[in-house]
Amino acid sequence: MHFQKHSLRALFITAFLSWIILVSPAALADGFDQAMDAFDNLDEEIVVDEEAIPESPSHFRLSGYGKLSTVVTYAQPAPQQGETDYRGLYRLRPELDAKLDVDIAGSWKARVGGRFWYDFAYDLKDRDDFTEPTLDEMETEAELWEAYIEGRPFKGLDLRLGRQIVVWGTSENIRVTDVINPLDLRESGMVDIEGLRLPTAMARADLTLGYWTITGLAIPEIRPALQPPYGGMYYPSDIQLPDDHPPVDSAGNMEYGASIAGHLPGWDISFYFADIYMDLPYLKTTVEAKLIRPPIFIPPATILPPIIQYPEFEYHYVRVQMYGASTAIALGNWLLKAEAAYFTGLKYFNEPNEDRDRFDGLLGLEYTGFTDTTISLDVACRYMPSYEEVLETAPDNNPESQPEAAVRIQRDFRNDTFHLTLLATALGHDGGDGWFARAESTYDWTDNLNFTLGIVGYGADDDGYFAYAKDNDCVFFDIKYSF
Q1: Element (H, E) at 25
Q2: Which residue among 4, 43, 100, 197 is the one 20 to 30 A from 243 at the CA level?
Q3: What is the CATH number of the domain that holds 196?
Q4: Does residue 399 have a cis bond before it (omega within 30 degrees)?
Q5: Are 145 and 114 in contact (CB under 8 A)?
Q6: CA 253: distance to chain centroid?
Q7: What pTM, to 2 d.p., does this model score?
Q8: Is a pLDDT exceeding 90 seen at residue 301?
Q9: Using one digit for the tens of pLDDT, what is the confidence trace for 216-263?
Q10: Is residue 312 part of a domain?
Q11: What is the spatial distance between Cα 309 and Cα 288, in angstroms, rounded to a whole number?
């Protein structure tokens, strides 16, 4: 694995919290005597203190968090003429995540949530130095998040309608069967997959029969992954790439999914099927190059140049089918995980008239034998049968097999008030396609207020898949208040 020379070090603070709860036996005895005296006072007039009657619980519950997120880069080179300067302050962003839960009637309830943020870093720098796509995507955001209604028409059947997140598979670090919700990929490596999933409008039905749950999904909202905007620090090219053309939301484009999950004593097993559009597009030629008119020679010395129709390209999304399975087996302090997915219908630029299949597999191991510590290792490989070497050339850059690995160490200290997470991932046979390592610590000042300090380092070979991000090393600091 090819690591850069940047030294990744951070200092963390710790705290200790303890509570002592004392129960007085004398108080218990006094309570018993008072209860016996009540029998002697039955003839007395009973006076009801209405203020002492507890109020019924509210049908409305507001929760969420407010956060101030700060990121500072420390490895960015000086920009060339016309490039954006991303040295120093990269983010100064207040965020608000709020959701309202409403009890409707019986088992029926609803949730509506939203996320809002504004990044002041662009105001503190010269906004004219940033491209319009960067300002549009990264300066501010206001989005409807999870918003759904759910309930149980009868025992064993649960329904949920609206924007929601569905998690498939067992790995927290690498996606194999987890294909239903797209990801926010605008800033890779900064957040775990759990915080990257984007909610999608869908109808979900879960039928539970003993240990087994059968799930059906109908997804009318076709939502691609969010990608880095042109000119952004994580954009993969110095030039603006062709336009993106995601499918429109329509009955004909509706996506579907189904799963059968068994929660058995000591182990879980699940089977999946999805008929969906890939979250990331492939490059497609929309106008072929051709010679409309050859050059014309007009005596004695005039030449009319040829008329050429130059090719045009666009990014399009291909519809695929995924057949998958996952399992997790608990063996004492060990948890064994495995996932497999087979995709059909993949398209590539260098083979526009061919459909390709791909097999993705994952093996994972998690250990919890140390005090307040979890260590996990996930190893995956994406393999393409019937491979042709033309797929390895640009712009596909798709090898026959591509391994991926992730190591995560989590530990809690000081009565679960100080949390440390170390995560490293690598892509490619030697990590040359790209890697990142993140270390972060969170201190719970109170039940509602916490502070997070972290550092992220990136690396890749010069011709690696994620070479564009190798200078994006940064430190980050968050203040978060939950309510």
Answers
A1: helix 25-37
A2: 197
A3: 2.40.160.10
A4: no
A5: yes
A6: 24
A7: 0.83
A8: no
A9: 999 999 999 999 999 999 999 888 999 899 999 999 999 999 999 999
A10: no
A11: 8
